[in-house]
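EI: anyone free to look at a 272-residue chain?
SC: sure, send it
EI:
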Amino acid sequence: MRWPIALLPVLIALAPAGAGAAPKPRVTAEEDSAIRLAFERGKLIYAYDQAAWHGSDDLEAKMPDFTSKVGGWIVDGPADAPQLVYFDRNQDDPHSVYVASFRGRQIESARVLGESDDRVLSPERKALIAARRAALDSLASAGYLRCKEQPFNSVVLPPERPGAPTLVYILTPQSELKAIPLGGHYRVEVAPDGKAGKPRAFTKSCLEMNLTDSKNARPGALVVTHLLDPVPTEIHVFSAFAAGLPVFVGTRGGRVWEVDGAGITLVDGKRR
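SC: here you go
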């Protein structure tokens, strides 16, 4: 029987464990590689996005007029200890304006840089800034779906290995705490030579999921269908972290995956 996808969290929670439980659905080697990569990317996107959010609040407190002085931001480093840099408006040779180091989501150290400080950016960070600019230009020149009037957020992931592209994520912002956007997110791959590829959309329409019901109660999970990929993507991982809820993703062939802070698990592997 093919259950309505909205009932899946309830059915999974009620499923019997032990000897009578159904065998664990099988994941192919290709799927396993894809979901591991999606999870690591999604976790890093969330960490970088959180660093930018908390860092911007701190920068605003230290420099109330910062929006007129900065040209943007980048984050790098590992997910558990990211570093945030706001840079100035000099497009030819940008310099640091503000730097912050994090331990998880907590600021460990942060300061606005003065003229006597070393404000020179490393070649690697300049490349991230250039990739961000190239990706935004690529999105602007393409026909893309805009889901909100607010400016996009952006997250730049450094190359995963030498010669690999820089991944720039252009994200619809979460404008209220009671809902989270799952549509209007893009990825642009920027080659080592600085050339940006065509933006990849993660959905074909705007989609926003409520995090509370009419009685202001939170659901136990979010449930979505995704037919553009055979497995959940980094955006589903990012959304699960951002919502603080598991996300059940129905993909092609009736396969259902659970995405949460621990990873991506295939919970229904039947190909209908």
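EI: The two ends are 10 Å apart (CA to CA).
SC: 👍
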